[in-house]
Design a protein that fits this description.
Keywords: Membrane, Sugar transport, Transmembrane, Transmembrane helix, Transport. This protein has 291 residues and is mainly alpha-helical. The protein has one domain: Growth Hormone, Chain: A (Up-down Bundle), CATH 1.20.1250. The longest helix is centred in the middle third of the chain and has 45 residues. The protein is globular and about 70 Å long. The C terminus is likely disordered.
Length: 291
C-alpha cells in the first residue's frame, strides 16, 4: 500500500500490538487474583477485548465498503529499474532473459525473507514464552518476584521502543534500523551467554533484548517490500514460515530448558547470525540481475 515508505506505518501497527500485549495482563490480573472478597468475573476482560476487536473490524469494514482502496497493479518489474520495452516485448531475447532474472531475484528474496522471519519469530516467541523459566532455572536462584520484574522490564522496553521506532523510521533507512537491531540482539545474547552468572549482566541483557526486538519484524517486512512486491501469496508464505518455527522451536527448547537453561540462549545466537548474511545475498542477486 505504501511502497518504499511502509516502514513507519508498519512500526506504528506493531507498536500498538506491543501496547496491547503489555496492557492485557494488567487488565486480566485483578480478575485472576485469589483471596479477594469480591466475586471475580473472568468474562469481563475477554468482553473488553472482544469489543475492541469488534469496533476495529466495523471500522475497517466501513472504509472497505464506502471508500475502498484501489490496489495498484503489482508485477515483478515494479521494484526494479529496467527499460519497460525490454520486459514487455516477449519477442525480444534480452527482455526474456531479464524476465527470467527478475523471477530468480523475486524467488531469492522470498526464500531469504522466509528464513529471516522464520528464525526471528521463533526467537521472539521463545522470549515471551520461556524467559521466566530460563531465569528461574539458572544457578543464581533468582526469585519469582525478580523474575516477574525482569519479564516486565523486557515487555516495557519492547513496547516503549516500538513507539520510538515510529519516529526513527521516518528519519533512518530501513536497512540501517534492521542491522542495528540485529547487532543489538546478538551482543545482548552474547552478554547473556558469557555473563549469565551475574544478575546485573542479566538485567542489562534483558533491557537490550527488549530494545533490539522492538523494531525487527516491521523492519524486515518493510526491508523486503522495498525490493519486491509482497502480494497476498507472498505474505502468506512469510506467515507460514513464522508459524512453522513457532511450532518446532517450543518442542526443542521446552523439553530441555529445565535441565539445560542455556539452550534458551544458544538456540538464538546461531540462527541470529544468518540474517546478517542478507546483504551479501542481495548483492549477489543484484550482480546476477545486472545486464
Amino acid at each position: 500500500m505504501w511502497g518504499k515508505e511502509s516502514n513507519p506505518y508498519l512500526q506504528c501497527l506493531h507498536a500498538f500490538w506491543a501496547l496491547g500485549s503489555a496492557l492485557s495482563p494488567l487488565i486480566a490480573a485483578p480478575f485472576l487474583a485469589s483471596g479477594n472478597q469480591y466475586p471475580n468475573f473472568i468474562t469481563i476482560p475477554f468482553t473488553i477485548g472482544g469489543l475492541i476487536l469488534f469496533a476495529s473490524s466495523v471500522t475497517a469494514f466501513y472504509f472497505e465498503l464506502f471508500t475502498p482502496y484501489k490496489t495498484r497493479n503489482r508485477s515483478l518489474e515494479a521494484k526494479v529499474e529496467i527499460p519497460e520495452i525490454l520486459v514487455n516485448n516477449e519477442s525480444n531475447e534480452k527482455g526474456v532473459e531479464i524476465r527470467k532474472k527478475l523471477r530468480f531475484y523475486n524467488l531469492a528474496c522470498i526464500l531469504l525473507g522466509s528464513l529471516l522471519l522464520c528464525f526471528y519469530c521463533g526467537s521472539e516467541y521463545n522470549i515471551f514464552s520461556y524467559l521466566p523459566t530460563f531465569l528461574i532455572e539458572l544457578p543464581l536462584k533468582i526469585s519469582k518476584q525478580t523474575t516477574a520484574m525482569m519479564s516486565a522490564t523486557f515487555g516495557a522496553m519492547f513496547t516503549l521502543f516500538r513507539f520510538i521506532s515510529i519516529l526513527v523510521a521516518t528519519k533512518v533507512q530501513t536497512s540501517t534500523m534492521l542491522y542495528i537491531s540485529l547487532a543489538d540482539l546478538i551482543l545482548a545474547y552474547l552478554l547473556l551467554l558469557f555473563a549469565h552468572e551475574s544478575v546485573v549482566a542479566i538485567w542489562i541483557s534483558i533491557v537490550f533484548i527488549g530494545i533490539g526486538c522492538s523494531s525487527v519484524f516491521a523492519s524486515i517486512y518493510a526491508f523486503i517490500e522495498q525490493r519486491i512486491n509482497i502480494t497476498n501469496v507472498i505474505a502468506s508464505i512469510f506467515m507460514m514460515s513464522c508459524a512453522i518455527i513457532s511450532i518446532v522451536w517450543p518442542i526443542i527448547i521446552g523439553n530441555h530448558v529445565d535441565r539445560n537453561p542455556m539452550i534458551f540462549v544458544n538456540g538464538k545466537i546461531y540462527p541470529g547470525l544468518t540474517p546478517l548474511k542478507w546483504r551479501h545475498w542481495i548483492k549477489f542477486c543484484q550482480t546476477y540481475f545486472a545486464y
